[in-house]
Amino acid sequence: MRNASRGLVALVGLFTLLLGLGFLIDPAKLGAKFFLAATTPQGLATMRADFPALFLTGAAFAFYGAWRGRAEPLLVPLALLSVALAGRFVSLALDGASADAFPPMIAEGVMVAILFLGRRALLSRAEDQT
Asked: Any alpha helices (H) in 40-101, and if so which ranges?
């Protein structure tokens, strides 16, 4: 179970790494998939700064936790993705729901669940060793 958890956490890291690099390399293309359009060079710069900050930071800590088999680093991507998911729920409440709203929420929810369960598996293993 522990190794399966580590593998799933690493997959979350890989997915967020690819998203972060995508926004860094071609923010206009990936932004369109997220229903965003940068209308100025500063808008592109913001997309190149903010999205990679979120995704690459989460990826780094997910990879570190998976590689070292440690639960503590998983708090970082867990917090980042939980805040993102909470923001989507706020948007649903304030702006209403469209069919486009649910696929990213499902993806974020699945990643939060993987990180939560992975953290739990790694914590239980650490407690068994003490």
From this structure: 41-68, 75-95
